[in-house]
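Review form for a predicted model. The reviewer records the input and the model, then writes brief findings.
Reviewer: anonymous (R2)
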Amino acid sequence: MISQSFFSCFHKPFQENLALTGRAVQSSTYSTWVAANAIDGKTVGRCTHTNKPDNPWWRLDLWKSYLISRVIITNRADCCAERLDGAEIHIGNSLENNGNNNPRCAVLNGISLGESVSVSCDMEGRYVNVFLPGTSKYLTLCEVEVYETVKKAFVMMKLVSSVNLTDPAVSSELLNQMTTVLTSKGLSNFTLTWTKPPQDVKQKKMKQFE
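Model under review:
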């Protein structure tokens, strides 16, 4: 028996936190709470902290422009969670007004102590700003994560096999085996599915010559 079917491999590339390779600055610095503390990969521990000027801000330079899908902000865990209320996320390519004039993605409100909030942006830019408008305010961030919009890969292949792929148990086991092989080759974050149900294929008879 010969069976054939079509199966697809859907691969969604792993998303890297772009902030980890960026450079952070802020409007002012209180003690040792420097801007880089928000991009050290740790959501607990060291945070940023400005002095108490008007309209404090924090800015991340990603070195080049990306199409940014989401930004994750983690609030401080020790006290004063409300200090982040009203902070704005801006994304763009301009440094006018220290980057705070770039288009606004979101306004933060009600983030609890130690809580992380994910904001969808779908905006293009090199600079990511957290801007807190108002007088005599502190700006503190414990972590800022930035993720770009990535393209998804989709591949469809035709498979011809001597095993009976019309048997659901056999076809399922085959996908499991192929998943194991691809994983062992270093491929990750993908899904294998049957695009069309497996079906029998009639074999052509070979003409015999005497």
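Findings: The domain at 18-148 is CATH 2.60.120.260 (Jelly Rolls).
Further findings: The CA atoms of residues 7 and 154 lie 11 Å apart.
Recommendation: see findings above.
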